[in-house]
Specification:
Blueprint: H1 3-15, H2 32-36, H3 41-46, H4 48-62, H5 78-84, E1 89-90, E2 106-107, H6 118-123, H7 125-137, H8 158-164, H9 168-200, E3 207-210, H10 214-223, H11 225-234, H12 236-258, E4 265-270, H13 280-300, E5 304-309, H14 317-320, E6 329-332, H15 337-344, E7 349-352, H16 356-361, H17 364-378, E8 384-385, H18 397-410
Helix pairs in contact: 4-9, 5-9, 10-11, 12-13, 17-18
Amino acid sequence: MSDYELRLKRMETAAALSEPDRVPIAPVLQCYPVFHAGCTMKDVLYDFDKGAEAFLSFAREYEPDSMFGQAYLHMGSGPMFELMKPKNMVWAGAPGASITDTSIHQFIEYAVLHEDEMERFGKDYTGWMFDKGFPAISGLLEPLQDMGLHRMGLGMEVSALAGAFSTPRMRETIETLWKIADLKQEIDGKVAGLNARIEEAGFPVLHQGFAMVPFDEYSDFYRGTIDTMVDLFESPEVITEFCKARLECMLALVRLQGQFLKGKWVFMPLHKGMDKFMSGEHYRNFYWRDLQAIIEEIVKQGMTPYVYTEGKYDSRLECLKEVTKGKVVYHFEECDMAQAKKALGDTACISGGFPVYLLDYGTKQQVIDECKRLIDVCAPGGGFIFETAHGFDHSKPENVEAMFDTVKTYGKR
């Protein structure tokens, strides 16, 4: 059996709730491979090849059982971002950036959908997106707000539509969109090439699909966290209708991914479902119901849902249990891992929970002790993948090495 096949079997065995030859280790990668290679985030955002070599070097040095995270650093995307002129994001190396060259990109959350637009948003979503939504998140798309597309109907002559798309500003916007499309295609090709090189080196790249809970989309991109929490009480019908429509879109996306990602894992980051963000009743009605439907559709399509919970998730464990057994992987950032094992051990594979601060500030012995404790709690009986609680950046190399060494020795069956 090749190294690739052994690592893949290890990951798949754990995901299926069985006990592999040893606990698989697949920490959530963020900027550490970049910094460990002597690069900055600015370097890799404007030079894909530097980032690719950094991740390949990491794989060869530490030999994880799966590589996850390289696709989410937006390597090589700096020039494309400059053309897009996003208002809700800042990245290392951006003109006038408010973050350092070593920072990961930062999302800027604000309300794009305002209260006085709610009625129109519900009745004319597409029209609102063109003259309100898109211009609010991208400087490039500001000309859309002057086109008046929402006033056009099938009775309008084609020449009128052509005129709306042919103003000097729109011509420039369209030409820039073509450039962005070309750059995106080039970057996607490079990501696919990097994943192929990583797998050729013997390391599975499982996390290739993506899905999102509609409530997170509403809160992240339309209303912002604070206004969304108000809407739960003052405008629940708006959230309900939005989530209903977007759920259908998400399920269609899952089915599309299922056509070419059989056997792969679908990454689902959960942003707003954490403990104390909403009541248990709200969680079930506005969050879990849709999350559960997406999970089951991913399973139906022959893929593995990799559900990445963010924040504390102790009070949600009973909901997470309501899925098809042996088909789901739950990653925990902040959770009582003993309770997670007890609640989900016969239902889903669990992962995460290792505190990154120990890699950054702890001693080597503290790292070793915590690795052993987590393995003792979560590994018995199988269904456990050793992962860091979240991505790591400026960690001590000796601590990262200790983490890998301990899992590979102490985690043997």
